[in-house]
Every structure is written in C-alpha cells, then in structure tokens.
Design a protein that fits this description.
The chain is 20% helix and 52% strand. It is α+β, with helices and mostly antiparallel strands. The chain has two domains: 1-39; 42-185. An eight-stranded antiparallel beta barrel has the order 2-3-4-6-7-8-9-10. A hairpin with a 7-residue loop joins β8 and β9. The radius of gyration is 27 Å and the shape is elongated.
Length: 186
C-alpha cells in the first residue's frame, strides 16, 4: 500500500512539475518576445505648427509615440551669411538657403514625457528681396534624438523635418512634417 501511495504521489508530483515547467517556458517566451518588440528603431511620424520667437519657437505637435503635445526649440543657429547661402532647391531666384548649424528641440507629450533632440544640419530658406529683413519660406532639418524623460529616457533616433514658414503680419509661423525616414528607439 505504501508503494502505491508513493507511486501516486510521484505521478502527481511529476504532473505538477511538468505543468510548472510549461508555464515557466510560456511566461519566458512572452517576456522575451515583448522585450524584442519594444527594442529597436521605430518609425516616427508627425506634424507640428507654431511661431518663431527670437532664436527659437513654440507650437503644437501630433506625433506617433507622443500623441498630441507641444514643441519648443531654442538656440537655433541659422547662418545668415550670403557667402554661405545656397540656391533655392525649388528654383526661386529671390530665395536663398542658409545653413542651420545648431539648436535644441523638446517634444512634450500630453502626460509630460519628453523627447529631446538637437539640430544636426539643415537649410532654412528665405526670400531675400529685402536682405535686411529676410522672410522665411521653407526649410529641411535633421535633428538627432539625444534622450528624454519618462518612457523616452535614454531614447535615440533621428527626426527629418520638412517645414514651411510664413509671415502672418505679426509672427514668423511654421508648419512642419516629420518625413518617412524619421525614427526613434526607446
């Protein structure tokens, strides 16, 4: 009788051990596959609009991974030097493009999480009919994601921006799009 009881106990124990092993493998697979999906570059698309203020600007944004939020940029360095200007890629004879050599940008989600970038390169094109007061027309910029806060802490990536600028009578305005090859990794 003791042998039968021990045998039944061992069979039940074996079933429990096998069941726990299967559960452990399933949980490990879900955790690993979830981590694999969370890592790596992800497409980053969006739009922003607002106004320039001094050497920066502010506005609103709607972007993947962020949702609706705000955009603020500062320390924008545009070299308005005719010797460094290039022709307008759209062919306008009164528009010249000036290099962008620096600046900071912060994209803030509605919950306060932020993506921090810095301007790496680009061109800011302006109508130079009146060289003393160039009127912005359009620009193309490359910003590098250098980090962030909240879920974007330690983020990396690159945001390629196409912008259209104008004058509303009081402010220089902008409307921009993050082009298809933009990405973020967090």
């Amino acid at each position: 009788m003791a042998k039968k009881t021990l045998s039944r106990f061992m069979n039940r124990f074996s079933v429990v051990v096998i069941a726990l092993a299967v559960i452990a493998v399933v949980v490990a697979t879900v955790v690993v596959s979830g981590s694999a999906q969370a890592a790596g570059p992800r497409p980053f698309k969006g739009t922003a609009s607002g106004i320039f203020v001094g050497d920066g600007g502010t506005g609103t944004i709607n972007a993947t991974h962020l949702g609706e939020g705000t955009v603020d940029f500062s320390n924008l360095v545009i070299v308005f030097d005719p010797s460094q200007a290039s022709p307008d890629p759209n062919g306008s004879p009164t528009v010249a493009c000036f290099p962008v050599t620096g600046g900071d940008q912060t994209l803030t989600a509605a919950n306060g999480d932020q993506v921090v970038t810095m301007y790496e390169s680009g061109d800011f094109c302006a109508d130079i009919t009146n060289p003393a007061q160039p009127v912005p027309v359009h620009g193309n910029f490359v910003t590098i994601v250098t980090g962030g806060t909240g879920r974007f802490e330690g983020a990396g990536g690159q945001i390629n921006i196409e912008a259209v600028a104008g004058w509303d009578g009081e402010n220089v305005t902008f409307s921009s799009t993050f082009v298809d090859d933009s990405w973020i990794d967090y």
